[in-house]
Amino acid sequence: MDHKDYTSSLLEQIRNSVKDIHTIAENETFEFFEKCVPPEVVKGGGNVFITGCGDSYCAAIATKPIFENADTSTKTGMVPGTPTKAYRNIEFSRYHNTYSGWNPLTLDRNMLCVVSISGSPARPNEAAIRINEHGGTSVAFTANPNGKLAGNCKYVVPMTLPDYDLAPNVTSYYSSVFSLMMYGFYMSSIKKQLTPEQAQKCRDGLLEYVDSYDEAVMDRLSKQAFDLAKRWEEDGVDNMDFVGDGPDYATAFFGSAKMVEAFGGLTTNDDSEDWCHINYFIKDSDHIGTFIIANEDSPAFSREMETIKVMCSIRKHVAVITDAEESLFPENATVIRVPKAKALWMHPLMEHIPLDFVAGYIGCWRGRRPFRNSEEPWCQDKDAARFRNSKIEII
Predict the structure, then answer these.
(1) Mean of per-residue pLDDT scores for the chain
(2) Stretch 319-342: mean pLDDT
(3) Are 17-211 and 215-372 equal in CATH topology?
(4) Does domain 17-211 have CATH number 3.40.50.10490?
(5) Of 17-26, 77-86, 170-179, 384-393, which range is least confident?
(6) What is the per-residue pLDDT across 90-133, written as a single tens digit (0 to 9) for each?
(7) Which CATH architecture has domain 215-372?
(8) pLDDT of residue 233
(9) What is the 3-state secondary structure (H, E, C) of the chain?
(10) Domain boundaries, the chain
């Protein structure tokens, strides 16, 4: 069968990515964010924390640079933005003040952006309640404006989420990433770190980048991902590791999550430095597939190139997701070129697509239901807490 002949909810989401992001953009204008979080609230804000679980945490990592450095649409033209931290949810809700402290002089200036599509898991709600009780400002980014998280936050950004059947979600990720990016630029404009014209230019540039994934590019990426996945399946690849740095680490993390959700694969994720310290030593390397994100404008590109050379010297299955020329990489690496972005911060919105395709095709071949739904083993203890019924505890 040809790659185009395979269908699933996951593959449908990937193939509709460009169209869906434009639908989101039509709704989520700067005027939209002004109605969600008034300018006077943004002006009074100081530090920003972004938190979430799973894909939502990946979105926090991906968009942190937008908040901490307002972009003026040149590769090196960043201007100071807002001090920002991307927190794992449990780290923010249970550990934050044990090492950072809550400054009584700036409590009301801390703003927490809590990302949760459904708004129902306990931990995002715990984080929102916690910052509220400490005097800060909570903003929910959720597709459920009437849900629990929206009710626990002072302000709500109701995200647009295209509707698909049950699948490892790609739509939730690019909805979260786009919403946080646009909110970051809205915030920078209100704080006069960017002019309204500069903020709009950033928005327009991002949508131009989205459009660079046109029909021909998407078809090529689908075919390359299909061929790679087929070859790895035939070679018995079952475990995979994913490598990325800075905002590209979000792509690596997200890609690893889709493999787990699509077919139950065993994965790890790391950066280009620590991979050489740890995953270098994993046994049975002939059956490990390795993905690394390495774009030319990455500050870590030289280190990534070194790491790729090491990978290719000890492993048979290495794939590079990059906007650089193929000739730069070892001959035994599989290079999947993605469109070049005008600015470093744009990459995470789209560069995950080849990884999503791989997850989608392997999921089809293995006949796995998304999230291994109805497969064993499942926790049989009715009193065991996974994430929705986990105890909320404010410290």
Answers:
(1) 92
(2) 97
(3) yes
(4) yes
(5) 384-393
(6) 999 998 876 666 665 566 678 999 999 999 999 999 999 999 99
(7) 3-Layer(aba) Sandwich (3.40)
(8) 96
(9) CCHHHCCCHHHHHHHCHHHHHHHHHHHCCHHHHHHHCCHHHHHCCCCEEEEECCHHHHHHHHHHHHHHEECCCCCCCCEECCCEEEEEHHHHHHHHHHHCCCCCCCHHHCEEEEECCCCCCHHHHHHHHHHHHCCCEEEEEECCCCCHHHHHCCEEEECCCCCCCCCCCCHHHHHHHHHHHHHHHHHHHHCCCCCHHHHHHHHHHHHHHHHCCCHHHHHHHHHHHHHHHHHHHHCCCCEEEEECCCCHHHHHHHHHHHHHHHHCCEEEEECHHHHHHCHHHCCCHHHEEEEEECCCCCCCHHHHHHHHHHHHHHCCCEEEEECCCHHHCCCCCEEEECCCCCCHHHHHHCCCHHHHHHHHHHHHHHCCCHHHCCCCCCCCCCCCCCCCCCCCCCC
(10) 17-211, 215-372
Residue in this structure with the two tokens 């909805």, named with its chain if needed: 175
